[in-house]
Amino acid sequence: MPGSTALSDKRPAESASPGYWAVVPAAGSGSRMVAEIPKQYLPLAGRSVIEHTLDTLFSCPRLAGVVLAVSADDSRWAKIRPRYADRNLQCVTGGAERCHSVLNALHLLVQQAQPRDWVLVHDAARPCVRGGDIEALIEAIGDDTDGGLLGVPVSDTMKRVDRDGRISATVDREALWHAHTPQMFRLDQLLNALEQALEQGATVTDEASAMELAGYRPRMVEGHPDNIKVTVPAHLALAEFYLQERKHLL
């Protein structure tokens, strides 16, 4: 397995049990939503998208804290921040891409967490994630050195197309999964994997991609399919439906 480098000499002595931290990259503009404000701040079932996301993360008792990465010119977060004044919520400036935002958050964490602590990176625009699924992910990964992520198996027939949009092949869906978040990895391993990917000029769209490039084989853990990412306007209505239905079941 790939090795890891020493991260910091400023952290407290390492505890016997690893801690769990959440990182939420929220510096994107969400251009596909065709909205005047970033998608994480769109209203959803009485709150903003990001508030639903954070509320679920803070409902997980094993998480020691959350690091949120927001853009440098974000003027909306300041209005929401007071709602979490009594929570261990820290903010960093996000970067040009998701990987840069996550790296900035990890660099903050290395000053207070341990190299073997777990980091759960979760999309700000996945407000329907279930606390039970986060717990299930933590339990399923256990001490697995390669980490893992939530997802759901592909159920539709999958097609590969050419540049003209014509089908070139039907892809066997048996071993295919939709990758969701949180994606859970050791702090030192994830930090090193992301930095190596950037040094190589590799395009990584999620943390698992960086870990794969570094030689790891993350485990897929099945979650609920309603853990959707709000990307286009239709997703917002669907997310509200899921949240309202869940409330009726309580």
Write a brief caption for the model.
The chain is α/β, with parallel strands linked by helices.
Question: Can you offer a commentary on this structure?
Answer:
This protein is an alpha/beta fold and 250 residues long. It has one domain (20-150, 179-249): Spore Coat Polysaccharide Biosynthesis Protein SpsA, Chain A (Alpha-Beta Complex). The protein has helices spanning 49-58, 77-80, 98-109, 131-141, 187-199, 207-213, 233-249, and strands at residues 20-26, 43-44, 47-48, 63-70, 89-93, 118-121, 148-153, 158-161, 167-171, 177-186, 219-222. Strand 4, helix 2 (77-80) and strand 5 form a beta-alpha-beta unit. Helix 3 crosses helix 5 and helix 5 (187-199) crosses helix 6 (207-213). The longest helix has 17 residues, at 233-249. The chain is globular, with a radius of gyration of 18 Å. It starts with 19 loop residues before the first strand and ends with a helix. Residues 1-10 have low confidence and may be disordered.
CATH C-level class is: Alpha Beta
Number of strands: 11
Per the CATH scheme, the topology name is Spore Coat Polysaccharide Biosynthesis Protein SpsA, Chain A
Mean pLDDT: 91
Q: Output the CATH homologous superfamily.
A: Spore Coat Polysaccharide Biosynthesis Protein SpsA, Chain A
The DSSP helix count reads 7
Radius of gyration: 18 Å
Helix percentage range: 25-40%
How much of the residues is beta strand, in percent?
15-25%
Q: Identify the overall geometry.
A: globular
Query: How do the strands line up in the largest sheet?
Result: 5-4-1-6-10-7-11
How far the N terminus sits from the C terminus, by CA atoms, comes to: 44 Å
Question: Secondary-structure element sequence?
Answer: EEEHEHEHEHEEEEHHEH
Task: Tell me the CATH architecture.
Answer: Alpha-Beta Complex
Unreliable segments (pLDDT under 50, ≥5 consecutive)? 1-10
How does the major sheet shape up?
A: 7 strands, mixed
> What structural category do the secondary elements indicate?
alpha/beta
Number of domain modules = 1
